[in-house]
Fold Transition state regulatory protein AbrB.
Amino acid sequence: MDHLGRVVIPASMRRVLGIGDGDELEVRLDGEVLRMRKPREACAFCGTREDLTEVLEHPVCWSCVAAVRARGREGR
């Protein structure tokens, strides 16, 4: 750790985790353990992180996919 509190993550670990320059990390304290991880993707509509699929290169949960489909059927 440097004098500004910055921590260096070794390149080999960054490669395994798929972390690149400018990527965000979630940081949390779990008792006396500092945990860092790459944030999981969230639904572009509701923000949930469960049951995601990709629609036009964006993460979308299946509940929102169903809602969009239902709304499309209503509009016809």
